[in-house]
Amino acid sequence: MRTLCASTLIGEFFVIGFAGLVAMKDPDLSMGTVWTVSGIAMLLCVLLCGVITRPGGVQLGWALQIALIASGFVVPMMFFMGAVFAALWWASVHFGRQVDEAKARFAAMAEGQAEAGGNPA
Q: Which residues of the chain register pLDDT less than 50?
């Protein structure tokens, strides 16, 4: 799960950076505000890559997805991009857990064969 989720988060890192560039063109927003918010969100993406398997990591990822969709109120294209990344996040979590379960079953099966003295090949 970690690999799939981290890949999604790194993609979001870049999308948030590009959205920040677009948001800079809004005359109602100061450049400091745009880059403070974008920078915090980008930093959160990187930090989440390291804590995704810890308790609450997936939930923090969902909070980031909601924030990404909500950023569409500033940069309208982010409604679409946020929805795309929310779908990717769901797929990363869902299929990542399935891969983790399959790896655990395979490791248990291999361990059982080793204890039985069987040759797996």
A: none
